Amino acid sequence: MIKESAHDKSKGGQVVAVFGEVLADIFPEQKVLGGAPFNVARHLQSFELHPVMISRTGKDALREDILREMKRLDMDVSGIQCDRIFPSGQVRVHMEDGGHRFEILPDQAYDHIHYGVTHMVTMSLKPDLLYFGTLAQRAMASRQALKQCIADCNCLKFLDINLRSPWYSDYIIGNSLFNADVVKMNDEELKIVCDLFSIGGSAPEVRAQGLMQKFDLSKLIVTCGANGAWLLDDKQQLLNANPVKMSGDLVDTVGAGDAFAAVFIIGLLNDWPLDLTLCRANAFASAICGIRGAVPTHRDFYVPFIREWTE
Fold first, then answer.
1. pTM for this one?
2. Which of 88, 145, 144 is nearest to 121 (CA)?
3. How many C-beta atoms lie closer than 10 Å to residue 35's C-beta?
4. In angstroms, what CA-CA distances link 159 with 19, 99, 229, 252?
5. pLDDT tens-digit profile of 157-200?
6. What H or E segment, with its residue span, contains residue 310?
């Protein structure tokens, strides 16, 4: 499944620069580490790649929790910057009317990723792929750092659209699309993004074609939750992944999109056929819905997938 990277043979896998937020969801009774980029990086590590998180934390207890988790997974911590002013990223989870309301706090350390440090890390990595999202671009400092990272990366660029109101704008989305090769979003985000740029059409696939043409994308992936996923390739041919029948009960859908993105990245780096990549990503995302939280506690969860993909 995994071919060895010339950039870092000691890690035994392709190098993926993962730019963006690492944070903790603060529940009344516990805190859970997350953030879409961090979830993707943890999956890639467990699938034997070499992800490097490019992010920033505060000089606080949460930073120690993050570093402890990364070291437990044997992850590269060289891209985790430390801020002496701003705190490590947090999302407060409020329990209301039998549900949850997520409050993404402003002015967190990941809003202040330093472009100079990012430049040094990226140039030393020479990554095979750059993954980035949209939330960490809400502040100027991190937008500048990402701009530098994109300029330094002579590789495939994978954009994972994660719209978190009110932390996005047509400027952030448009600039992100302009700099991406491969883009992943869900069906609701497709509607929002197409509306932002006045891209009409009688069907989602038609609107997706318009988006690809406007921003010169090579691939556009749209996830549809329980209804599977589909994509348009560089010739704007449509490929579908049908819904996956779960072997057990649905526990929660937290992190399913991040799981999908991680496996799709593996497929891109290993030249899997696109239809196979789409189906494997969809199947892994479905499996994640059968556990509590975005990332498995133990690496044993990944073994059946690795075994199947290497046979």
1. 0.94
2. 145
3. 26
4. 10, 30, 16, 24
5. 999 999 999 999 999 999 999 999 999 999 999 999 999 999 99
6. helix 303-310
